[in-house]
Amino acid sequence: MTRKAKHSSALSEKEGVPPQKAVSETATKKIQAERKKTPSPAQLVAGILNGDKTALSRAITLVESTAAKHQLLAKEVIEGCLPYANNSVRIGITGVPGVGKSTFIEQFGKLLIQQNRKVAVLTVDPSSSISKGSILGDKTRMEDLVKAPNAFIRPSASGDSLGGVARKTREAIILCEAAGFDTIIIETVGVGQSETAVHSMTDFFLLLKLAGAGDELQGIKRGIMEMADAIVINKADGDNIKAAKLAKTEFNRALHLYPPKESNWIPKTLSCSAIKNEGIEEIWELISLYFSETKSNGYFSEKRKQQNKFWLLQTIENRLNSEFFRNPEVKKELEKQLKALDKNTTTPFEAAEKVLSKKNALRN
Ligand SMILES: Nc1nc2c(ncn2[C@@H]2O[C@H](COP(=O)(O)OP(=O)(O)O)[C@@H](O)[C@H]2O)c(=O)[nH]1
Ligand SMILES: [Mg+2]
User: Fold this and answer.
1) pTM value?
2) Protein residue with its CA nearest to atom 23 in ligand 1
């Protein structure tokens, strides 16, 4: 047969050359197994303290894992990192989806990096189904920051309970700080109680807003204004400039109606255009001023101490809670009492006493 005839079909292919085995199969397998193996906690701690972002990522993955063996490893890594944490400023950023948080953080983070800061961005988003979409968005909106050697971006600790997500984020902060990140930015969407959680783990709380149709204060969640150390009206560009100016005045006026803060800080309203990179420097100046004032009046460290106490109690509460409700005897009694309540043969308080009396089981 001629060569031509053999290859008459466009679909036929030349016989391939057998692969050359430069590395033996056993060696390949060994390397693959090595890669899969989680490094030891000591290796991770060493990597983190060296500023190695891969080690940092892996450690955060351990922290986020629900597997008991990972949690044990994570605990060791955190303990190893703890003495090197705390040397940072932590900034919380909240605002409704679409307000421009990610776009803002991209510009803001780039500015900080120019000033020789090391920036870590974490997100608190307890609604994991939403976060899946926003991770994609965040990656594209933080295009430059993602690539910057002095930035670390971890889109989302997902989870079902806010308590769980908050704990993971607290621990991720410790790891980032140990890795030398001196500016921690925590983004949260305004769902559920996530702002409160982020407020309780940051030094400065920034609320991003949009200029609306004049009714600026409507629809703002109660309590958020009180938490904010600054309000920034984003998208102050194009046709929006005038509305942004009006909104700024209105928010400033409203902020004055609140009682003075424990920090002695008077919250301010600014405006910016994240997309045009305008007004971002003024925001950093304001935040820097807050840090220098609260560091010199002692509030900065006082607040961190209060936060630590809060998280200690919160952790105990969460643990007791889950252990209690997981207990089989408690479960059984609870079911029984719920049925009794249904039949009106008990009161909620009597029923609660009965269920609580099973708590002895917790000692085991
Ligand atoms: N005009 C204008 N659009 C912006 C600005 N900042 C963000 N956007 C746009 O608003 C949309 C949502 O931004 P994104 O950063 O994802 O908001 P997030 O959901 O709060 O993180 C995107 O289409 C951005 O391009 C801004 O300053 N001006
Ligand atoms: Mg976003």
Assistant:
1) 0.82
2) 98
